[in-house]
Amino acid sequence: MKKRLNILCVIILLVMGYSVVEAGYYLTMGAWIGAKTGYEHARQLDEAGSPVDSVMAARQISRMTNMEAISLVPRAMKGEDTSLFLDSVYNVKSKAYVPVVYGAVVVSVEKPENVFYSAVSGLTGILAAVSTVWALILFIRLIVAINRSDIFNWRNVRRLRRLGILLLVVYGCSFLLAYLTCIRVEEVFAMDGYDLSLSDMCSTTSLLLGLCALIVGEVFAIGLRMKEEQDLTI
User: Fold this and answer.
1) Residue 9 pLDDT more than 50?
2) Which of 62, 143, 151, 231 is most buried, taking the most CB atoms under 10 A from its CB?
3) In sequence order, which residues have a C-beta less than 8 Å from that of residue 225 and are 6 or more positions away?
């Protein structure tokens, strides 16, 4: 029984670790590519021999700093009287254009400076990172306690409750960041036949894991209360 429980714990740990590593990888790669591209364009801007070259380099820097990944939903799927296939892409296999429906795009649009948005985004990102690391530590401690046969006690109940709350905080932070991005981009960008969507901009993995942790924690708590009541009646 303990072996099966350990396997399930390892699977959950891998899922949590994968989500953290994936988010960290894309964040790091995005920052690295942005910094590298910005440095190259800044160098080109310094070495520009004419006003035209300076303007082109400045535009390239602006495009990189204003990139945003957004999700789209066709208005036809909302029941509006519009065509579903409004766009097309060139298929190199068939050497012809084929109809497509976009689900996500990366755009570069200039957005007005917003100190409040920048501050909220920075603080939310820090809170999400701290909550994720804390949740991983709690989960590892829970696995260690289970392997030591120290399972049904109030310490583990508190760990499960805190773990669930932290995972919900991580989801809330990611949802808030996606929501703020959607609002800011929606002010300056729109596509014919599409609406911006939050569906693919925010993963629900941490939400599901957090709710599961809270449920298991309450099951543990109910079992402990029943055991304490039985001990009192003996």
Assistant:
1) yes
2) 143
3) none
